[in-house]
């Protein structure tokens, strides 16, 4: 099997929802310090992958917020392991690789930004597009996914990386947001690049008003993920 087929097989074995990859050159528009080559100078490709959250806790927010926190942590653990194992697979083939876990996008309180944007990478890799909630929406799961990536020296052959637009602009995420962080999106949002939400309002709600508990309401609100809830997928 070639390396691309091996990656797809490993993603399936790890229970990932989706995986895609793109040449490191495709990230030249990313801000300086946040490009693949800023982390691994010899980078040739990036693989980004998604793991789907279960529906139960999300569908019962905010009452099930503690359970959502556990769900969130479990998904992050699985993705950290997946990033490690995918990097190990690539290194076993002779390609130095760096796994970037899902917590990288949390960063610090004021920025809510990490060293590498999994969401922007997921668009470049063809996994999906941004919603007005500024989350990545993917096929069959909407925003109900967590993401991680591997930067590698392997030259992975990209497929068709055209990302579909799964956001219907229904505005449900905006109305359900308790902090008002998603208001004023019009004229600023794009499915390819997202937009800069009011991070201070969002962070204040999570880290001060909710005493550090994850919110999840803009994930739960999005019908793009709820469509699959009763389908058994
Ligand atoms: S996480 Fe909560 S507070 Fe932040 S944007 Fe989403 S719904 Fe609003
Ligand atoms: S809730 Fe509606 S507007 Fe918000 S991201 Fe989902 S589809 Fe887009």
Key words describing this protein structure:
alpha+beta, two-stranded antiparallel ribbon, 9 helices, about 35% helix, disordered C terminus, binds iron/sulfur cluster
Task: Describe what you observe in this structure.
The protein is α+β, with helices and mostly antiparallel strands. The protein has one domain (3-226). The chain is built from nine helices and six strands, in the order H-E-H-E-H-H-E-H-E-E-E-H-H-H-H. The strands form two sheets. A four-stranded antiparallel β-sheet has the order 1-2-6-3, with helices on both faces. A two-stranded antiparallel sheet has the order 4-5. It is globular, with a radius of gyration of 17 Å. One iron/sulfur cluster binds at residues 131-133, 167-173, 221-224.
Tell me the distance between the termini: 28 Å
Estimated share of beta-strand residues: 5-15%
- What is the overall pLDDT average? 91
DSSP helical segment count: 9
Multimer state: single chain
Alpha-beta content class: alpha+beta
Query: What are the distinct ligands in this entry?
Result: iron/sulfur cluster
- Our count of domains comes out at 1
Q: What summary fits the major beta sheet?
A: 4 strands, antiparallel
Task: Tell me the helix content.
Answer: 25-40%
What letter string, H or E per element, gives the SSE order? Answer: HEHEHHEHEEEHHHH
Number of strands: 6
